[in-house]
Request: fold
Amino acid sequence: MAKKANMAKKINYTLEYQVRCSPGILYEFLATPAGLQEWFADKVDARDHIFSFTWNGAEEKAELVDQNQDEYVRFRWLAAPQDEYFEFRIQRGEVTNETVLLVNDFAEKKEVADQSQLWNAQVKDLMHRIGS
Reply:
């Protein structure tokens, strides 16, 4: 008899933030250990495309899956399924030409609101660091 999967399927969701800085400056905060350590985690180290993020002494590792200078950076938690990731994408508003940060992540449907609040707090910290 087949076992029922007890893990709910996670869904992809996207959050959008207006950022008052150039894509180049924003990219440095999203793609480098020093930049990420400014707002995303207490400590960030990287070696061979594996980033180690530390919060309150607990470490999580993510693989840098893909990136394009000043456009996007995509990570996958090592403990997560292959098709799940979190991504920072930088776009220019077509009308206003403002920089827009898109955060793509995965969460169970019932956890999207809580995860979104967590991202909102993190990105607020990022905005403070870059003076936006």
Notes: The chain has a mean pLDDT of 93. Residues 11-130 form a domain with the Alpha-D-Glucose-1,6-Bisphosphate; Chain A, domain 4 fold (CATH 3.30.530.20). Residues 49 and 100 are 25 Å apart (CA to CA). The longest helix spans residues 112-130.
